[in-house]
Amino acid sequence: MNKAFRKHLTDGEIELIESTKPANLRGLDEDDLGDLHDRVRRASRKYRKLHRRQASQQVRRDGSRGAASAKNQRSGVKAEVFEDALARVSRALSKAAKESAAELKAERLAAAASANSRRPASTTRSKGPSGAGRKPAKKRTPVNKKKNASTLAAGARRQAKRDAR
Length: 165
Known about the structure:
Number of helices: 7
Order of helices and strands: HHHHHHH
Structural class: mainly alpha
Distance between the termini: 92 Å
Helix content: over 70%
Shape: flat
């Protein structure tokens, strides 16, 4: 953040922006990054909304967007600064989430592998009565649905014919 932007920000806002610098983001875990992301997103939304509201009011007063845009610089600068900060935190949070997901997956795979290695080799799983001799279920495609409906209707017609005798 350059010095031109600093003059538009308060001390608390500068502190929040400083906490989004890459060097400060490296030391944070996923939960801390999530909290920071929420704070920065709230501030970003606040100044974006404020900038749009002020700009629309100024356009009504001045009668043109060109004249109005020059008068609404402070909230526009703040909105831009916080959007950049939000992008930095979002990238860091995404990276941390991917890393933790990879670690969790590795842990689960290791746990599954150790559970399989503890099982005795002599015992085998047998298919119970529900799995013995059954065909795999067919997919429910539109063609199969139509075929099933046609079969049911034909059976109903045969039964109706018998009942009519």
